[in-house]
Amino acid sequence: DNALAAAVDARRLFRESAMPLEEFGSLLMIAEMQLSAGLGEEALNAGREAVALSQDRADKASEASAQLAIAGALLAQSRADEALSAAARGLALAQELGDTPRQAAATVQIAQAHLARGSGAAAAQKAEVAAKLFSAAQDRLGEAGAVQALAEARILQKDAEAALQSCERAVALCKEAGDAGAQGHTLLVSAGAHDLKGDQESGLKSAREALQLFRESGDKLGAQLAREMCAKLRRRPEHGQAAAAAGGASMAQRIGSQCVPGVSGPGAGPAAACVSTQRICGTAESKKLAGLVTVVTGASRGVGKGVAQMLAESGAIVYVAGRSTAGKPSDGSAPGSVDILAPGFARFGGAGVAMHVDHSQDAQNRALAELVTQTHGRVDAVFNSDMEISGHDAESFSVPPWAQPSIGESIPARGSVQTAQTVLFAPALRRGSGVVVNLGAPDPAKEKQQRLPEALSGQLAVRDVRAMSMCTGPVKTERAIAQAQEVGSKLIDMESTRFSGQAVVNMLSMKPDELSRFAASRAALSSADAARFELDGFKHQGGLRAFASSAQAAVR
To answer: pTM, whole model, 2 decimals?
Structure first.
């Protein structure tokens, strides 16, 4: 669109500056771009303007080129008779001038017009003449186009062998010219010739090769034509022949024979009616974070455990750090340890490494950072959830949130620990995609708890590393479940620990520019800002910040 607009502006400037030759060239360029964009009528109008301009200048060479542009636009609109007349006028002018390249171009367009009219013999005769003219002009790509038209004419004449021979010659010429798109179109003609011959397997092979060439060259229209040809050649067996066609082959063999690797899925199967279907596939599609190196602190249980599990399911390498060991949990009221958690990641398709770390000890934090950095040379994400949360009691489930003590009064400030942990990993965090998420506890009365993480976030942003504080809603942790059972309360529509993990996975899946905008728009976020739906389908509401204190509650 931008190139077309620039060509239109250039044509206007040339016209205002009284530069007819340059204006003519821009008109031909406009017609070609419009034709490529599927704007046949607009291309036709541009060609007619070019003809008028060349006639005013009595320039027969330019008029011949303009007539060929008109013929191409008419062919795109399936107006074969008019295209034939325009190409014939262009040929007459080229012959008068003794211009061999233009004669060849006009002759091949006449052949294409005959093809559109269904006249195989006339098209073959003109295509052979055009091929000789292009060969004399040493135009390999033009010769390939003429030979391809000859192959199409042979198909109209029901001569599959001659068509295949022409296709082989055209493919060789395309390779010599280095034009993958033209080679793809020739292979589609070859697929049609194989189909005429009754050799659908060879035809499908040619169509798949064409599809791959179109994908590599970025030709979307050609790729669509190739997919249609593949669908045509993957013919379904007759209803009564389904079992016989299957033979003794396995299901994988029968389905695999109908696929284009990396492009399409199963395209055929028994024609018998089916009452249900089930897609069977591996877990590769869910591995959005495959190969990423991540560290989760406080991962023995609770939110840290849920985040680590979701990262592993997405294919990441997860270092899970915590104080608890097998048989010796750091919190006696809730089970769990990194020794039990990490080995289970293999079931999800990820990799887990258990690290026994007391994050209140600087030496242990430094050892963790050095181990990860020396092993991988980088860190993609750090999730700090090492927070000591006081136990729930009956009041936690029977008293409204706004009547409960301030969050800041029940959760010790851990901003300094999280900041120190982040600083240790900062040199290894990747520019552009590095993410640090600190599990926080928003409370206006304890705003100073967030000052260190916020200051560090600004420093890391200079290095294109994003650091954010994430606050959860009420979470259904192991401790909450156990103590709710003790008081006979039910936990309804609370966040699961894996919901926070889904939020972290969504952030890590963002493109760098999207992640930058997301982080810049919020210094602190809730889990529901990055994830919406719970595992059971419940939708949490994002964009809310609720704070409770002994005096009042505020929602913003």
So the answer is: 0.45
